[in-house]
Write a structure and sequence with these properties.
By secondary structure, the protein is mainly α. α1 runs antiparallel to α2 and α1 packs parallel to α3. The chain is built from four helices and no strands. It is 79% helix and 0% strand. It has one domain.
Length: 146
């Protein structure tokens, strides 16, 4: 019995929930460590910030989908929607790997801040470029169908 693949907007909602839970868990873990002699764990702070800005990115992508589909009354290309949502989620996983790997004092520890700082803009840029391409592609497809 095969299950149908969720729509790209549903994938965005799933990733939004993933980022929301991750952000909440990081904040709760930080707050639970507050006691006398508290030493801030840098990776927990980085994790909370990374999840927050990832949450903002995916919420923006979801709002863009809703807005464009509501205003234009047309469906966007599903394949490009998957490229956007799953590609950006893959970038989130790469950012999480960077935070984890740097915490282990591996080879990435020396260049870790630059890596995570570059993943977030990559998520925003990649997501918006694919989204604009999706809008243009759907207009071109509709124009050629006439």
């Amino acid at each position: 019995m095969s299950h149908p693949m969720p729509a790209p907007k549903a994938v965005l909602r799933i990733v939004i929930n993933f980022c929301l839970v991750g952000w909440g868990a990081a904040i709760i873990a930080q707050a639970s460590r507050m006691r006398p002699g508290y030493v801030r764990l840098g990776w927990l702070h980085d994790l909370a910030i990374f999840f927050f800005f990832s949450l903002v990115a995916f919420a923006l992508f979801f709002a863009e989908y809703q807005l464009v589909q509501g205003l234009t009354k047309r469906d966007l290309n599903v394949t490009l929607g998957y490229v956007q949502s799953l590609g950006c989620f893959l970038l989130v996983l790469c950012g999480l790997w960077g935070i984890y790997y740097a915490n282990g004092r591996g080879l990435a520890a020396s260049w870790y801040p630059a890596f995570t700082e570059n993943v977030l803009p990559a998520i925003y840029i990649f997501g918006h470029v694919v989204f604009v391409g999706n809008v243009i592609w759907s207009y071109v497809q509709e124009g050629s169908a006439r």
